[in-house]
Design brief:
The protein contains ten helices and eleven strands.
Length: 264
């Protein structure tokens, strides 16, 4: 089972939700060889509930996953900023993710982000799997927190974007932190658009449809991380494409139509 732990369903969090764009993303994820992904959408993205309402309407429920027509399994999730600087990922049942997002409404702007300890207190009230996204990406400071707090996490994200920029540093620091805290290290592409899918993925020996079983497989070590040979190229290309599409939108153009139009 090939899974991407860190993905997004929108081009950018300040842009409106587009069902057509999200459909394109999920089709491309399947084409890239993924069997499943954690949709760790930014907790303060525009239209968070709309994103999940749409996905729920075009999928069937299997355990905690939303299974699309093409067979791709989407584990609902969220990426949340913390006051100390840095991002915390979570994945779990759709109802838990939506309720958590609603409860975080007062804390969605800089200066109001919850401190790590308070955010973990909130997450621990729900059946969600919680990890740290790209722990060593500036200006994040999560690894500097006391170990007794960090051990409340369940995993660390060996992030595709950071691997592409500096593989040696990213891998050494993330794995060292995982060993120190006795936490599994898994991988996510951190993509907002399709070119980046597959730059890095986590390949499990067994299939699962719940975050409980996902965590059990992580703890058992029945997985491997695969980094594509062209990961750096994919990440650079994705960044250029994202900037270009956002500029099209800013100029009043329809970036989704341009992106998804078929050649004559």
């Amino acid at each position: 089972m090939r899974l991407d732990f860190h993905t997004h369903g929108k081009l950018a969090k300040k842009l409106p939700f587009s069902a057509q764009y999200t459909d394109w993303l999920f089709a491309e994820a399947k084409n890239a060889g993924l069997d499943a992904l954690c949709l760790t959408e930014h907790f303060n993205t525009l239209g968070f509930a709309e994103v999940y309402g749409y996905i729920a309407s075009v999928s069937r429920r299997e355990g905690d996953a939303l299974v699309l027509e093409n067979g791709l399994m989407v584990f609902p999730g969220m990426e949340t900023d913390v006051a100390e600087g840095g991002h915390i990922l979570c994945a779990g049942p759709l109802e838990a993710i939506l309720e958590l997002n609603s409860r975080l409404e007062p804390h969605k702007t800089p200066g109001r982000f919850l401190p790590f300890a308070e955010l973990m207190d909130l997450f621990e009230q729900y059946p969600v799997l919680v990890g740290c996204g790209h722990p060593f990406r500036a200006p994040g400071r999560v690894p500097e927190l006391p170990d007794e707090q960090l051990r409340r996490l369940k995993f660390l994200d060996l992030n595709g974007k950071d691997l592409a920029l500096d593989r040696e540093r990213t891998e050494a620091l993330t794995r060292a932190l995982g060993e120190r805290l006795d936490l599994p290290v898994v991988s996510g592409s951190d993509t907002h658009q399709a070119v980046q899918y597959g730059c890095v993925s986590t390949v499990f020996e067994r299939d699962f449809s719940t975050v409980g079983d996902m965590y059990a497989e992580m703890l058992a070590g029945r997985y491997r991380i695969e980094l594509a040979a062209d990961a750096a190229f994919r990440v650079r290309t994705a960044a250029i494409l994202k900037r270009s599409l956002k500029e099209i939108h800013a100029l009043g153009g329809d970036y989704v139509q341009i992106l998804t139009a078929r050649s004559a």
